[in-house]
Design a protein that fits this description.
- This protein has 247 residues and is α/β, with parallel strands linked by helices.
- The protein has two domains: 167 residues, P-loop containing nucleotide triphosphate hydrolases (Rossmann fold); 62 residues, no CATH class.
- It is built from eight helices and ten strands.
- A six-stranded mixed β-sheet has the order 6-7-8-3-9-10, sandwiched between helices.
- β1 and β2 form a beta hairpin.
- α4 packs antiparallel against α5.
- It is globular, with a radius of gyration of 18 Å.
- It starts with 7 loop residues before the first strand and ends with a helix.
Length: 247
């Protein structure tokens, strides 16, 4: 099967979100197919997090439709959520719990039981390299380890689709490298959309870029086409930001 024939796993169809007269997103449409790793870029306040919350069903669109693995996230959210792993920026973690107790809590919440429960808990602890801190309170862990704990609970139910909002925000260079390695490894078997405004993340992890500015999608194409005509990625970032502001 060619890439353009692979199933659509993430779809935004004319998504808009209005707060009074303010448009957080306006008429955003795109498709992400199975096996793609896509960077969702834009300046702060451009509408990245809002779009991701619309895609996950966390908030309802004013107009348009969001689909995960073909499921309308407004009318069939439970089925869509079973296919989805969502890691919000600064996702909720309980500081008094340990990584193991948190992962066990989410396993219970998702109805993962028996031998499969034990296997999945062991698998995500290994994948996210949490063995050294598995019994320590989450509140005493570094931000890098807390991000790994969040990733572990996102992966627990073996979702086909991952949506990651600023997964490397606030991490040091070594921690960023670890997250990049994890995302690349997951990209071998998952469909991934990750939000970022850091240009180096695009080059390191994604094969395609969606760029949003002022709530509008202003670029959708391969990472290799983001910088054109001898312009640097910094220049293109500014150019696309200005394009959104003038739209």
């Amino acid at each position: 099967m060619s890439a353009d024939q692979a199933p659509v796993m993430i779809e935004a169809e004319h998504l808009s979100k209005f707060y009074g007269e303010f448009a957080a997103t306006r008429d955003v449409s795109f498709k992400v197919r199975q096996g793609e790793v896509v960077a969702f870029m834009g300046p702060n306040g451009a509408g990245k997090s809002t779009t991701m919350k619309l895609l996950t069903g966390y908030i309802a669109p004013s107009t348009g439709v969001a689909r995960i693995a073909g499921h309308n996230m407004a009318t069939d959210r439970l089925a869509g959520s079973a296919k989805l792993g969502y890691l919000p920026e600064n996702g909720p973690l309980y500081p008094d719990m340990t990584p193991r107790s948190l992962i066990e809590f989410f396993a219970d919440a998702r109805g993962i039981a028996g031998r499969h429960r034990r296997e999945r808990i062991d698998a995500v602890i290994d994948l996210c390299d949490l063995g050294a801190v598995i019994g320590k309170p989450i509140g005493k862990l570094s931000k890098g380890y807390r991000q790994r704990v969040g990733m572990a609970q996102v992966l627990l139910h073996e979702p086909d689709v991952l949506i990651l909002d600023e997964p490397t925000a606030g991490l040091d260079p070594n921690q960023i490298r670890e997250v990049r390695d994890t995302v690349r490894k997951l990209g071998e078997s998952k469909t991934i959309m990750l939000s970022t405004h850091i240009l180096q993340e695009v080059e390191a992890m994604a094969s395609r870029v969606l760029f949003i500015s002022e709530g509008r999608l202003v670029f959708d194409g391969p990472t290799s086409e983001l910088a054109v005509e001898g312009k640097s990625l910094d220049d293109r970032f500014l150019e696309l930001t200005m394009a959104g502001a003038s739209a």
